[in-house]
């Protein structure tokens, strides 16, 4: 069953490739417990089927980069991009699109957290394995307050402009 508004995010681990060493975090891939990351924060999360794919690279991620300041002004503490890719791929994609820390590029390499959300997308027949459905959500202290799930391969409700209008 898929997550819905009012639900608490399931426990899971996401990995982020860090370009710069930080307090308690080394250069390279670092694993983070979702429950620790969301504690006391309002987070805009959007998920894409895959890094470097056309809609994801040309519209979805760039839209959140363009609306970064406006989302922050509406009380969003962090913006996350989640994909079923490894942390090295997510880090490279972030560098390619010049994310520069405005969006956290969160890897769910084995789709474990995506499956816990009930938002996996089976693309095995197309040679792409299990991926994430395209969606966006607002999470406040771990609780989903908004959720925009795309139908099929669409891109019409999970964009940054739609989220911004609803905040």
Overview of the molecule:
Strands 2-1-5-4-3-8-9 form a 7-stranded mixed β-sheet. It has a two-stranded antiparallel ribbon with strand order 6-7. It has a single domain, classed as Glutaredoxin (3-Layer(aba) Sandwich), CATH 3.40.30.10. The chain contains 6 helices and 9 strands. A hairpin with a 2-residue loop joins strand 8 and strand 9 (143-149). 28% of the residues lie in helices and 30% in strands. The two termini are 26 Å apart. The radius of gyration is 15 Å and the shape is globular. The mean pLDDT is 91. It has helices at residues 34-38, 54-66, 68-73, 87-96, 112-117, 160-166; strands at residues 13-18, 28-33, 42-48, 78-83, 104-107, 120-123, 129-132, 135-140, 143-149. With 167 residues, it is an alpha+beta fold.
The quaternary state of the protein chains shown equals single chain
Question: How many individual domains?
Answer: 1
Overall spatial form: globular
Q: Class, according to the CATH hierarchy? A: Alpha Beta
Q: What's the alpha carbon Rg, rounded to whole Å?
A: 15 Å
Trace the largest sheet across and list its strands: 2-1-5-4-3-8-9
CATH topology: Glutaredoxin
Got a strand count? Answer: 9
What is the CA–CA distance across the termini? 26 Å
- Flag low-confidence runs: none
Percent helix range: 25-40%
Strand residue percentage? 25-35%
The number of helical elements comes to 6
Structural class: alpha+beta
Order of helices and strands: EEHEHHEHEHEEEEH
The CATH homologous superfamily is called Glutaredoxin
Mean pLDDT across the residues is 91
């Amino acid at each position: 069953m898929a997550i819905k508004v009012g639900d608490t995010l399931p426990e899971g681990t996401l990995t982020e490739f860090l370009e710069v060493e930080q307090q308690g975090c080394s250069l390279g891939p670092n694993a983070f417990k979702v429950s620790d990351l969301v504690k006391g924060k309002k987070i805009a999360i959007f998920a894409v089927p895959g890094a470097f794919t056309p809609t994801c690279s040309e519209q979805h991620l760039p839209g959140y980069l363009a609306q970064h300041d406006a989302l922050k002004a509406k009380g969003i503490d962090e913006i996350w991009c989640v994909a079923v890719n490894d942390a090295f791929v997510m880090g490279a994609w972030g560098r390619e699109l010049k994310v520069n820390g405005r969006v956290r590029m969160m890897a769910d390499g084995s789709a474990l957290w995506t499956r816990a959300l009930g938002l996996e997308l089976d693309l095995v027949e197309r040679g792409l394995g299990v991926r994430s459905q395209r969606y966006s959500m607002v999470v406040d202290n771990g609780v989903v307050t908004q959720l925009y799930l795309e139908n099929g391969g669409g891109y019409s409700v999970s964009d940054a402009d739609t989220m911004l209008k609803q905040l």
